[in-house]
Amino acid sequence: xxxxxxxxxxxxxxxxxxxxxxxxxxxxxxxxxxxxxxxxxxxxxxxxxxxxxxxxxxxxxxxxxxxxxxxxxxxxxxxxxxxxxxxxxxxxxxxxxxxxxxxxxxxxxxxxxxxxxxxxxxxxxxxxxxxxxxxxxxxxxxxxxxxxxxxxxxxxxxxxxxxxxxxxxxxxxxxxxxxxxxxxxxxxxxxxxxxxxxxxxxxxxxxxxxxxxxxxxxxxxxxxxxxxxxxxxxxxxxxxxxxxxxxxxxxxxxxxxxxxxxxxxxxxxxxxxxxxxxxxxxxxxxxxxxxxxxxxxxxxxxxxxxxxxxxxxxxxxxxxxxxxxxxxxxxxxxxxxxxxxxxxxxx
Length: 347
Hints:
The chain has 2 domains: 6-223, Alpha-Beta Complex (Spore Coat Polysaccharide Biosynthesis Protein SpsA, Chain A); 227-346, no CATH class. 41% of the residues lie in helices and 15% in strands. The protein contains 11 helices and 11 strands. Helix 8 crosses helix 10. It has a 7-stranded mixed beta sheet with strand order 3-2-1-4-9-6-10. Strands 5-11-7-8 form a 4-stranded mixed beta sheet. The protein is α/β, with parallel strands linked by helices. The longest helix has 22 residues, at 227-248.
């Protein structure tokens, strides 16, 4: 088998041929490249739908399809990475795709230029399109007042928590043991993304041209109207894991402190939204309070080097549009006191 320059690593669970066709077709139609230089490793996470081998063999590039026991999307991505042997890898979702016919050519040109000029990169990050529908009344689309699903595109920036539109040197990931955290059932991409940014340092190349499109999947967990309430506590766990990585890298003490304090501010502002105190959110509120209490007990001392001015600036920055600019409610110190005493009255 020909050595690959680039492999696309794709988790698959219940996605059918009709769903993955968009991604695979977008790779098939790439121009000005030799298809022998690319390949796909698709790792099934033990879902109840197995893709047809004849369908996969209909493409002109190599597609390795592996069925694993069900664990998580993070586990499927890690399995695909361990099975890869290309110089570079790119993580894709099964329903995404390239947004033009020259995306891979652009990647290869940047790899070739870096090799010629002896300016290697461990991470190539590009802007990317985000497809949105108005299921959640979110980005790019507005309710038309009819039953029609409205469609729109926005552009994701380099500093987003998405892993899409990013190309990694495989050796860089393997040598630094950079894998997806399989303990996280949500926000595992945020954890991976931030950790790779930290390790890559100045070996990052950025492109402003979008080459990839992240597509909104109707019915996915991220489109759940209660997504934030259900999974905010997992973001706290992801944050705590990143702090451990920052300490391993011996990053600046104050930068670690700011990062530590940031998630406390985010949870405070988010939990000031009235929806958190609706009856059907009791379970989510309880686990989020308990997780934040655990986090502050474990990492709160890292914030001791921050002045009151530093903390105020971090809180004000988190409050900026478009997320929490109009949030009003319990004062920050009162909220923290409540969290730290939460559950004690039951003991």
